Amino acid sequence: MKGNVELIIDGKRLDGRKPLEMREVEMKVNVVRNADGSAYVRFGKTIAIAAVYGPTILLPKHLQEDKLLVKVRYSMLPFSVDERKSPGHDRRSIELSKVIKNALAPAIMLDEYPRAVLKVYVEIIQADGSTRVTGTNAASLALAMAGVPMKDLVTACSVGKINDTIVLDLNGIEDNNSQADMAFAMMPSKNRVTLWQMDGQLTKEEIKKMIKIASDACKKLYDMQKKAIRGAFK
Amino acid sequence: MKGNVELIIDGKRLDGRKPLEMREVEMKVNVVRNADGSAYVRFGKTIAIAAVYGPTILLPKHLQEDKLLVKVRYSMLPFSVDERKSPGHDRRSIELSKVIKNALAPAIMLDEYPRAVLKVYVEIIQADGSTRVTGTNAASLALAMAGVPMKDLVTACSVGKINDTIVLDLNGIEDNNSQADMAFAMMPSKNRVTLWQMDGQLTKEEIKKMIKIASDACKKLYDMQKKAIRGAFK
Amino acid sequence: MKGNVELIIDGKRLDGRKPLEMREVEMKVNVVRNADGSAYVRFGKTIAIAAVYGPTILLPKHLQEDKLLVKVRYSMLPFSVDERKSPGHDRRSIELSKVIKNALAPAIMLDEYPRAVLKVYVEIIQADGSTRVTGTNAASLALAMAGVPMKDLVTACSVGKINDTIVLDLNGIEDNNSQADMAFAMMPSKNRVTLWQMDGQLTKEEIKKMIKIASDACKKLYDMQKKAIRGAFK
Amino acid sequence: MMIEEYVREVLNKGRRIDGRRFDEYRKIIVEKDIIEKAEGSARVKLGNTEVIAGVKLNVLKPFPDTPEEGVLIVNAEFLPIAHEEYEPGPPGEDEIELARVVDRAIRESKAIKLEELCIEPSEKVWGVFIDITVINDDGNLMDAACLAATAALEVTKIPKYEEDKIIRGEYQGKLPLRAKPVIVTVAKYGRRFLVDLKKEEEEIIDTKVSIGVFDGKVCAIQKQGQGYISLRDIETILELALRKSQELKKVI
Amino acid sequence: MMIEEYVREVLNKGRRIDGRRFDEYRKIIVEKDIIEKAEGSARVKLGNTEVIAGVKLNVLKPFPDTPEEGVLIVNAEFLPIAHEEYEPGPPGEDEIELARVVDRAIRESKAIKLEELCIEPSEKVWGVFIDITVINDDGNLMDAACLAATAALEVTKIPKYEEDKIIRGEYQGKLPLRAKPVIVTVAKYGRRFLVDLKKEEEEIIDTKVSIGVFDGKVCAIQKQGQGYISLRDIETILELALRKSQELKKVI
Amino acid sequence: MMIEEYVREVLNKGRRIDGRRFDEYRKIIVEKDIIEKAEGSARVKLGNTEVIAGVKLNVLKPFPDTPEEGVLIVNAEFLPIAHEEYEPGPPGEDEIELARVVDRAIRESKAIKLEELCIEPSEKVWGVFIDITVINDDGNLMDAACLAATAALEVTKIPKYEEDKIIRGEYQGKLPLRAKPVIVTVAKYGRRFLVDLKKEEEEIIDTKVSIGVFDGKVCAIQKQGQGYISLRDIETILELALRKSQELKKVI
């Protein structure tokens, strides 16, 4: 079915955006009082809350490693999607938890916390496409607010191909009907890519073009992240 | 549907009882040879066996607390009900295990066994209403037989409202069609209430009346419990 | 249905064998490079791979015993059977794992490895009857290749009754339609029986006759096992 | 330990750590319709405690003994973000108890007109799934959860259903309701009765009774914790719960 | 350790700790129809070992390869009340083995006339669920379990079935039976063969063979434990099992 | 530790522990149709890494949004025989990731003509179950798994289906295919790019990107591991993957 749905009419996407336009983005920090760090990120109707607990000593002892163990858990609330999702960790959530962990870990100074564990939870409150990148942005902010030493923030966005057009920040209907969709995250100040996933059909040239669009978008989002953090310390 | 079934005809309940009449009650102790303490309690066709193991040292060490940890598990045997119940702990059993634990714990001298665990198992052999209170009575007897130091026995019964009449000791069909049913347990010699649950619709005055009936009934059951214990030491 | 299917026509079984003829047997050792010992055994279309890891120290400490703990896990690959078997350990696999463990343990010098654990995995790659005995033969070879000290090899075969005839080495269709089938394993050099299971209907005399056939067959298989081991050290 | 002793000391002096009266709730904020994807939703803040309830409707086969009635399912999850001691995994006894007590308050008060949710007798009825998720736990989850559930039901709409298909995002009307149950949890500390415990208070007070109330009547009772109440406390607890329920009802 | 040594010492002297002969069962008590809610039930006491079996009937879809036959399901649970080492949880290998061996003894002896349990070919047949629950474990659960299962089947009635509904508590007749299988478990200690081990004996004897018997024929064999028997033991074991099965059959 | 240091030392000198070039695969052996019971199967050896993929076909209800299309299900299991660290149990995150990336490579390249697998619209379609089992893990399971899956699909036949029944062992024709996707996993160590890591290399290299390729196009990308790549590495990685994919395609 993919690619058969008309998603761009007169150069505009169904929600009125231009191809390379992001949805409205909102970022807030310290939204979960009990957590050591937390953040709320909204891309259009996609809403993620992330919270960080730790680092704390990992027990039992025989599981300890010589660097910080990062645990990430991504999940979607039952009412975040059209058809109620029954609670519990499905295969998709397990994969995305791993992918987000691998997106964040390169930015964390893992060596500073031997024998410790850090818990990062990403809850998707509402899902309208691009949940993993929205969640990654929230998790990165939550880590920063928790005071976890980081080499840089991690900033993420999605880019895709719909109706033969490359677009930024896919929403739900675009995601479901895309010819290709790519999730991407980087440490913007160092051009280091930490998350890169794609499914669909693309040529090498298309991929290169999309990477350029995604990395440019990340730089804008990076400024918003930094602003959200600064706001908390005002 | 509740309340539409005729359960009281000419002042008599379907099993011939008067509204405030209990079913035949039978109590036996030391029914499970391997257990440190055990008891059998029957209210009409509702049969519960409870057994206690412990207190024993809680392992691993990091789970130890400075007072006795009481674990309670209530379950119904597969053939105890009309439609076979598949084995395993369902949500109802988990809630009732907690409720029974909270009914028993106030009577146990928890401080006397730091770092220890006590296991209380309640098996419903046959279910015809009022299983949680029948099980609570059995568990209380089993604790006493196991020599666990207690402030008092815990004694339990159910009271409900059917066909606008308040009745004592609901059986299965009454429970399923009641306007309200209440489970109640107390330490009778001290008038201390340790279990109190209700669902249905009641006014404050009705509740007060039911509590009076339940606490009076508990005092009679208390005598039977004491008699069962004394019998074991004759 | 059992016993109604014609499985022997003109004295020949459906695959052309005579009643007391085994299927083609193939045995190879060291088929899994990472394992401490491994083997492949094929009885006709039934294929088993076994691998052994250990003995290693058993952790956590409080689980240690004064002799070697042998863990066996038998399982069938999803595509090994006509109707795909979904992954995971079902009741049949749990029973067979125990039965194979009890077939192997008497041959292992358990006292030589206090506080240790030995892991034996049996994977059925393709199932066409007699999988537990094929797996037992493979596991025994894998143990020998792992250098686990043994009193003798364990050798196994199946024998059954179909169309009122006693037959050796049941295949899948014979197994499903047998009047009786028996799984048998022994330490051949000492006439010690370590696995003996039967279901069906048999007289004492029939059982004695079948045991004779099975033990004779085991002695032939024993020579093949020894040959496979010797081949590995050539 | 230090905190526990401090909380006790303050309580023993007849005060609470945040200066409230014993029968006073923290500030309550109720926001409705916050999740567009849900058929109904609400966020409730009780001080720092935050709970979101979402309602989803689905078409189900009815139970055989009520072939013409909709089905109510209540589920609760203490999200691991909500407290450092919460771990992901299957629901624990506290989550199950909370869900079941809220379920009873809604079911027994007949808050939802389930009899109007039949699509085809014995075959198809609406299933009303209420999912309660705890975002931050600073105590008194039970009252917050019931508030959130009731508030979410208030704004729940029934999706269009055409040719055996649910059309998500389009609606045929509001979920028919009859009552607005609330739960008031009354705790006992020494001889005093408190409402709306903060987390620190819950750590040291192990006797609570949750009372479900609607229209001045009681529809659910659940004694909680490893403590006891006296027989003569019962009336006090009921009266306090009935009184405070009036306040709670107003905020929905 | 002390107890184990004592048990060994007594056995080595040719006696048993409770004074029985090697081929002697403890006192067997069988009570039938003890659970009114079950379609059939029995309690078996073998000395201090106590097992309850309950039979429930349900209407099921038959297996595709036997569209006109009822379905037999046997399940076993070692209740946590039965021994201090039993924990609640999913069934362990011992529970599964026990259930499967009893299942085979009943199935292979064709004890139940499953072919008479068809309601509507390929659509509806009776499912016979036998649940074996261990109340107290003082050894030899296998023989006690099969006795309880067979005794429960003896008194099992088929519920009335009208207009696609089971009417619990009313019956259309007895479950049709063909055989009364029993299991005799023979243990080997040194050169001796024993029946009906007590728990203390099971701790030190790790070679057992369970033999299912009906009408003088064998319908199930299961060697258990991490020991071995000699080829020449087989006849002795079979003869002992066949002989003792006569006794067991009488008590049902 | 010693081994890890050795592997690093060799890599730092611009060589690999088994003497291969950085862009060189180990010897690849592909055997097809090795499991008669499967509708399709293949064994792939990448050096000492061994993977078996089996394909089973079953009749399923289609997804509501694709009522005329067959269903693809990919599952992976790292058998406990394959490595001393693999334990039996539910699939872990590595097994799930591997299955899902192979699934995407096959699905997005439209390798299987799912639209030709409809038996009865909205009711019955063929379900294609690909089970990937790792027999021995010596690194680079991803590439080996995709090779095995694609090779197994190449020889998969559709069973006969008559009167609502699958006739196992008889076939109506080949599974209709459109593409042969392969996965090339490129790893980065320092400034070097490697393919086909051995297990010892995987222990020290924590940055990998798996690229699914078919007909010169990319159909799946998955960055793995707790490392990062630079923006400018992307082109290098894509080119290396596209180049090596030609080789892999030939061995199927």
Word description of this protein:
The complex is a heterohexamer, with three copies of chain A (234 residues) and three copies of chain D (252 residues). Chain A is of the alpha+beta class. In chain A, 27% of the residues lie in helices and 33% in strands. Chain A has helices at residues 91-104, 131-145, 172-176, 204-233, and strands at 8-9, 12-13, 25-29, 37-43, 46-57, 69-76, 116-126, 155-162, 165-168, 180-187, 192-202. A five-stranded mixed sheet of chain A has the order 3-4-5-7-6. The N and C termini of chain A lie far apart (50 Å). Chain D has five helices and 13 strands. The chains are: A alpha+beta (234), D alpha+beta (252). The interface between B and D is large, with 35 and 36 residues.
SSE layout:
The complex is a heterohexamer, with 3 copies of chain A (234 residues) and 3 copies of chain D (252 residues).
Chain A lengths: L7 E2 L2 E2 L11 E5 L7 E7 L2 E12 L11 E8 L14 H14 L11 E11 L4 H15 L9 E8 L2 E4 L3 H5 L3 E8 L4 E11 L1 H30 L1
Parallel strand pairs in A: 6-7
Antiparallel strand pairs in A: 1-2, 3-4, 4-5, 5-7, 8-9, 8-10, 10-11
Chain D lengths: L1 H11 L15 E5 L7 E7 L2 E12 L10 E8 L14 H16 L9 E3 L3 E13 L4 H14 L2 E6 L2 E10 L7 E8 L2 E4 L3 H6 L3 E7 L2 E8 L4 E2 L2 H19 L1
Parallel strand pairs in D: 4-6
Antiparallel strand pairs in D: 1-2, 2-3, 3-6, 5-6, 7-8, 9-10, 9-11, 11-12
Helix pairs in contact in D: 2-3
